[in-house]
Amino acid sequence: MKLSSPAKINLSLRVLGRREDGFHAVDTRMCPISLADDVTVTLKGSGDTVLTCSDPTIPTNDGNLALKALHAFERHLGTTASWEIHLEKRIPHGAGLGGGSSNAASVLLAANELSGSPFSANELSSIAAEIGSDVPFFLHQKACDATGRGEIVTPVEHFPWKLPLVLLKPPFGIPTPWAYKRWVESVEMPGVTYATQICPWGPMVNDLERPVFEKWSLLPTLKMWLLDQPETQAALMSGSGSTVFAVTRSTADAGLLAERARALCGESTHIFVAETL
Predict the structure, then answer these.
(1) Which of 37, 68, 89, 134 is catalytic?
(2) Is residue 181 annotated as a catalytic residue, yes or no?
(3) Catalytic site residue 253?
(4) Can you tell me whether residue 271 is helix, strand or coil?
(5) What does the pLDDT average to over 197-204?
(6) Residue 218 CB contacts under 8 Å (≥ 6 apart), including other chains
(7) CA nearest 170: which of 249, 245, 276, 229?
(8) How high is the pLDDT of residue 141?
């Protein structure tokens, strides 16, 4: 079974404080986007379970969220089987785009269907929350609001926008736990726009820009450059970074902006044109 496993952007991300369990409470709106991996899940007759990946830099051991998802599925099912999972990667790692969480959700959906759908949507969501905070969101594959540590997901009833996007992913990733840990003590940098951007599809703001921009100065530079471009309606960092993205006025404008960004950034920065789903 082959599934498209989309990336996401955070259109907004508010950090509300540290919880007693060590996680941070958040209020966020996420959207899946057209940039996607392909996840192929096969239920085999016999043999060991195997995970393969087109990106040799991504581990294929039990640390991979796709395998964690499969193990959680089997643990709740109470039986084990022989599986083959292949990840065809396009979503960059450490980008704030949720690639690993999306792959995990795709494995849950595929394993459930190949096993005869033993779990309901709510039961799958509970299993997903054990794997990672963003995994339940990816079961929906539509715009959602999320609270708690991100695992309490409510689909947005009316989100008609297909937002054209340009995403800039620099040649480094950012550890999500680090960004949250630094959030309380971080301060805003002068000359950088952190204020909420009011848009027709909702407010755009990211509280994690504050700690991340302090350490990785390229990112505020890229955000402010995007905001200065005539094609840009709004620009923001996604999640804990390192991707920054612009919402453009049209698909044609996205292409023009991406071409200009490639000339500015060179080959070291991955640049994608996409849209919200």
Answers:
(1) 134
(2) no
(3) no
(4) strand
(5) 96
(6) 170
(7) 245
(8) 86
